[in-house]
Amino acid sequence: MADAAKQSRPKGTQDFLPPDSERLLRVETEFRRIAAAFGCREVITPIFEHTEVFVKSSGAASDVVTKEMYSFTDRAGRGLTLRPEGTPGVVRAVLESRYRLPCRLYYVGPFFRYSRPQKGRHRQFHQLGVEVLGEPSPEVDAEVIYLGADFFRSLGIDDCTVHVNSIGCVRCRPAYRQKLVTFLTVHVGELCADCRVRIESNPLRVFDCKNESCRRVVADAPRPRQHLCAECGTNFEMVLAGLTARGLRFELNDRLVRGLDYYNRTTFEYVSGALGAQDSLGGGGRYDYLVGEFGGPDTPGIGFALGLERTIIAAPQAPAPPRRRLAFIVWMSEAELAPARTLLDRLRSQGIAAQIDYGARRAKAQFRSADAADAACCVIVGGDELTRGVYSLKDLVTGEQTEVPADRLVERLRTLLNG
Ligand code: AMP
Questions:
Q1: Using CA positions, which residue lies closest to atom 15 of ligand 1?
Q2: Domains delineated in the chain
Q3: Is the minimum distance from the CB of 124 to ligand 1 under 6 angstroms?
Q4: For 174-195, what is each residue's pLDDT tens digit?
């Protein structure tokens, strides 16, 4: 690799410098607020896990496991993987610490998948997720779906459509699966190489294939929702009733299967027209068999993961504030540096963000630093002002400069910075 390439960020990753990083944080904060309102508490798990954790939960044949994982061997020979999704790590953590159930958890953080980068698809991206363990009621499915929709609505994303489906359970899925396999086998010649393998390993995944020919085949394939057992049928009706009761509009999407093996019954996805080809804002479903896969006691689960980068693309941009809530202290000569520093500390201790440039000797250069920092105002500490007990306050948005008595400075700054 050329040296210049090594100094740029790795393919598929992104830098978020201020104010973009702040926008990201604001969206995360909004997610935390809404998740907490639904009773969820934050869980923080490692960014890498034993590879086995993902293989066990996603299935060795899933795309994530076969093609997209960043796996490596550590110095002691352990097989580790940068997490490509959140649910497996959360379930592992809950089981490992014997965390009390039922529990409602949420997480926020980076995830890693080796896929071809494009708009809204990165190799390192961020997800906002919710996992509810130990609550079997279909009312909970509706609540969880509603939580995600509420989050998008609160960000002003109006064109978010919720797709819902049911893929049945251990009782009804085997017969359906057989029917699907029979159908796909008849059409094997029209399927892509990946889907031919999927017929045996994970036939439902054929519904997710983007290949044109595969899409034509599945258009006529038997659908999971038409083969639900009576209990799954009733359960699905109750989920829909819960959504309707909350006034949430949804679309039934009988091709929505989600790519992972551990899902059962309800699957859902949030779709936005603003995103282009990668139109999924997030998705999730019920996974009543996952805890069992991990060797834990039968425990129902439901959750979702939302993509932060896609959320940001879809959300209307709030107008950026013209300046930061930051006061920049300008000192006129060496003699004022000490009182300027004292003022700096006093403002900070009173909760006002303040900054100083120690290095620039000339006031003009300090004003330039104030500008680069996007400060809203400068407080000028000069000999004359100090002896008279006043500061000059320069509003960097309007350019207006006024004198403020020392004992009124904090109050004036509060008004100016919060206005
Ligand atoms: P998934 O677990 O694949 O359903 O992903 C859930 C959500 O995470 C998706 O709907 C996207 O919003 C987001 N996401 C998944 N993969 C990526 C990626 N490679 N880059 C950016 N966002 C992603």
A1: 307
A2: 8-172+228-314 (3.30.930.10), 327-418 (3.40.50.800)
A3: no
A4: 999 999 999 999 999 999 998 9
